[in-house]
Automatic annotation (TrEMBL):
This is Cation:H+ antiporter. Keywords: Membrane, Transmembrane, Transmembrane helix. The chain crosses the membrane at residues 12-35, 56-76, 96-118, 130-151. The keyword Membrane applies.
Length: 158
């Protein structure tokens, strides 16, 4: 659909949103609706749970959160030092290395969120995770595009 929209290059838009973007969003939401209706029709809810199992799960979650918070803290510091060393040894600018590391660091949590949603067989969570993430990125692009238009050809971020 995207390739067709780029090939046709329609200049028509609704509220400054291109027809191709609207069509892609409609197809995506129709797909979400279709998958959700299929999933609801085939699943049976399991309503019983054990209170002690819930307490153990919460304690494990708290311990895991603290452990991984420490791992992320140490890894972030190490990543910063590694990025500086890579930039110095390869001659690549530090901003390019930093941009690559930031792209990787911000994509991994999203990929893990989608992976866990699919592992839990919760297709709705995965679909809405992707939709919200894409809406957020589109909003950021619009904000920076507007700022660039307001400030002329100057760079918004350095």
């Amino acid at each position: 659909m995207t390739a067709a929209g780029l090939a046709v290059n329609l200049s028509f838009s609704i509220l400054s949103i291109g027809v191709t973007s609207i069509t892609i969003a409609l197809i995506y939401f129709l797909g979400i609706w279709f998958i959700s209706s299929k999933q609801n029709g085939n699943s049976t809810a399991k309503k019983t749970s054990n209170v002690t199992d819930t307490k153990i799960a919460i304690n494990q979650a708290i311990r895991g959160f603290i452990l991984f918070a420490l791992v992320i803290f140490v890894s972030g510091s190490t990543l910063s030092l590694s990025g500086d060393a890579i930039a110095q040894n390869t001659g690549i600018s530090a901003s390019a290395v930093g941009s690559i590391f930031i792209a990787l660091a911000t994509s991994i949590p999203d990929a893990m969120g989608v992976f866990m949603a699919l592992k839990l067989a919760n297709v709705k969570l995965e679909l809405f995770w992707v939709v919200i993430y894409l809406i957020f990125l589109s909003l950021l692009l619009e904000i920076f595009s507007t700022l660039r238009g307001v400030f002329g050809k100057t760079q918004v971020m350095r």
